[in-house]
Amino acid sequence: MSDVLRIFKCGHCGHNLRFGSRRCGECYSTTPVWNRCTPMRLLTVVVLLCAGGVGVIMLA
Ligand SMILES: [Zn+2]
Q1: 36 C-alpha vs ligand 1 centroid, how far in Å?
Q2: What's the confidence (pLDDT) of residue 37?
Q3: Fewer CB near the last or first residue (10 Å), C or N of the chain?
């Protein structure tokens, strides 16, 4: 089993896109935005912001 996450398919050639990559590995067309902006990255930012906010409240 591959350790590379492949969720979305290329809209041009149907190639399974490597998650997070900006271009299709087969036809080199740009991948959809949702393949690039990883939800995990957004989640990390939100968690960090929340943790920072809670930290400020605890200190006050
Ligand atoms: Zn493609």
Answers
A1: 15
A2: 66
A3: N
